[in-house]
Amino acid sequence: MRQSITSVPEGPSAIGPYSLAVAAEGKFLFVSGMTPMDPATGKMCDGPVGEQTRLVLRNMRKVIEGAGGRLSEVVSCRVFLAQLTEKNFAEMNAVYQEVFTGDYPARTTVGAQLMNMQVEIECVVRLGA
User: Fold this and answer.
1) Inter-axis angle of helices 86-99 and 49-66, to 10 degrees?
2) Separation between Cα atoms, residue 105 and residue 117, nearest integer Å
3) N or C terminus: fewer CB in 10 A for the chain?
4) Domains of the chain by start residue, with CATH
5) DSSP string spanning 55-77?
6) Of residues 81, 68, 80, the one with CA closest to residue 125
7) Which pLDDT tens digit goes with each residue over 55-78?
8) Does the pTM exceed 0.90?
9) pLDDT tens digits for range 14-33
10) Strands of 2-5's sheet, edge to edge?
11) Is residue 116 within 8 Å of 27, Cβ to Cβ?
12) What are the DSSP calls for the chain, one per residue?
């Protein structure tokens, strides 16, 4: 069974031909790359990497919870940084550590060409735990 998640209460909206997330067999939730777009205004945050990361993770939490999952069940994250520098990595990592504590998900961080943002994060979540 495959279920597309196309909207969640107070969460971000897809801005193209994709789902916010897809639940597979009721066991895993594959969350699309979340961006630092403010769902209330529809505007992209143009603040520093830390501020953008905080908004990205807030959007990710809304999608996960809206699909019936929990942030504590994230098993893997992919972080994309527009400028992969020590400073940007440290800013992102500090905010990431505020959200994920203790038993951390697996994670990959890569430099990527991103449009109008400094950070994007996608994840996989275990459902029904």
Assistant:
1) 40
2) 23
3) N
4) 2-126 (3.30.1330.40)
5) HHHHHHHHHHHHTT--GGGEEEE
6) 68
7) 999 999 999 999 999 999 999 999
8) yes
9) 888 999 999 998 899 999 99
10) 2-5, 21-24, 28-34, 119-126, 74-81, 106-111
11) no
12) -EEEE---TTS----SSS-SEEEETTTEEEEEEE-SEETTTTEEP-S-HHHHHHHHHHHHHHHHHHTT--GGGEEEEEEEESS--HHHHHHHHHHHHHHS-SSPPEEEEEE---SS-SEEEEEEEE---
Tokens of 34: 């979340």
Give the span between the Cα atoms of 62 and 126, in whole angstroms: 16
Q: CA dist 65 to 52, 81, 126, Å?
A: 20, 25, 12
Structure tokens at 64: 């996960």
Per-residue CA distances from 89 to 63, 78, 102, 110, 120 (Å):
24, 13, 19, 10, 13
